Amino acid sequence: MRARRPWTPGSAHRQFGRNVYLNLFVQTAPSGSSSFLGIVPILLIFGIFYFLLFLPMQRQRKQQQKMLASLENGQVVITSGGIVGTVVAIDSDTLVLRVKPDNVKIQVTRSSVASLASAPEGKK
Question: pTM here?
């Protein structure tokens, strides 16, 4: 008969920890088909996010860049700050806008233009 070790504080805890680790290693790994089925919902969620969030954002960004590249003198634009003005001059990355009622001219960056307000004044 084997002699038992004397009880010490924490010895029961160490034994419990060993059993937990052994149980984790003894469990069998899932078969190949069930692991694939576990990945399918995650892939499906990523696909939904791509089509509902990322794809529309990319389209909107391309449309915004196209609008900014096609700005011309005389177009009425709205800035991201809410200022409505008519494009007077265009530089490489800045615009000069004429703001009514006092015809004040302000210089803004091209990227601060949020949208076109209406058709160009000269082509009505």
Answer: 0.57
